Request: fold
Amino acid sequence: MSQDHTAAPAERGWLIFHLAGQPYAAPLKQVSEVVRDGDITPVPGAACDLLGIRQLRGRIVPVLDGCRRLGLPVDEGDGSRRRIVVLSHQGHLVGLRVDAVRDLLDVSGETLAAPAGRTSREDDPVVAVAPCPGGFVALLDVRRLCRLPEELEAAA
Reply:
C-alpha cells in the first residue's frame, strides 16, 4: 500500500527557507519562531546532524543542522543570514538551522505534486513539491524531519 502524502501538504501556509541554495518549506502553523543562530551547546556522542542544544525561554531545545539532516552540502561561508527555525510538533520543540529564511508561501492541493523520481520511504521528510517564485519548493513533514515517533500523533 502506498503511503499517504496528504497530511502535511494539506496546510496552506508555509515558511520557505534555504538549505544549500535550495528552497524548502515547513507548515507555518508548526513554526514556533525564528531566532538568530548561536549559543548552541554541543552534545558529546550525538548524531552528526544534531548541532547541540539551546536554551530558549526556559526550555532546552535540540538544534539540528538542516543541511546535514537532508544530506546536503554544508556551506561554512558567511553565516550572517543563518537562522534557527524552531519547529513545534505536539508540544515538542526542535530547532532547525537553515542558511536563510525567505518568505511565506500559500499553496493549494491542486498545485502539489509528489517528488518525481524518488523512492518513497516512510522516514522521508520531503512529502511534496509546490511551485514558488523562481521554481519549486520541497514541502517538509515536521514529524519526520525532526525524527519524532509516530506514537506522538495518537497521543494528542
About this structure: The chain has three helices and ten strands.
